[in-house]
Amino acid sequence: MYFKSHPKMVYNGKDAIDIFHRVTTIKHFEEDYLFANLYDIKESETPEILANKLYGDSEFHWVILLVNNIINVRTDWPRDSRELNDYINSKYSESGGVHHYIDADGDIVDGPTPYPVSNYDYESLLNENKSKIKLVKPEYINKFVKNFRALIK
User: Fold this and answer.
1) What Rg do the C-alpha atoms of the chain give, in angstroms?
2) Domains in the chain: how many in total?
3) Looking at per-residue confidence, does 129 or 8 come out higher?
4) How far is CA 120 from the centre of its chain?
5) Average pLDDT in the 114-142 region?
6) If both were cysteines, with which of 63, 65, 78, 83 could 130 make a disulfide (CB 3.0 to 4.6 Å apart)?
């Protein structure tokens, strides 16, 4: 559904979709909370599952990705618990090892302090932050798609 709206081009003598044509989200949808809900992604919830649950059609997954500026679902979407553990174990030799230190205000500092942050806690926090997204309210999804199609051409 996403690429159906993109303009066509000729590449090597053949018609092709211009995948380099990109539109950023429409500002009033992003900034106006009448149009966008804040949402915490649940364990194992994919963009397709969420789009189907919210909009009744998994094909609207691209709207969720676009609104949240998610380019690569494998790195920008939160991992479930098993994937997160596998990722941490493959990235670090010690998941409980110290990643960095923070001071009493939560600021990162160079030297050891009483507040070490483990590799596991660091990656878990990054993953948790990825789970907080904006969603176009279901009653505005058709208006959003219509505006997107007008801008992408």
Assistant:
1) 20
2) 2
3) 129
4) 21
5) 94
6) 78
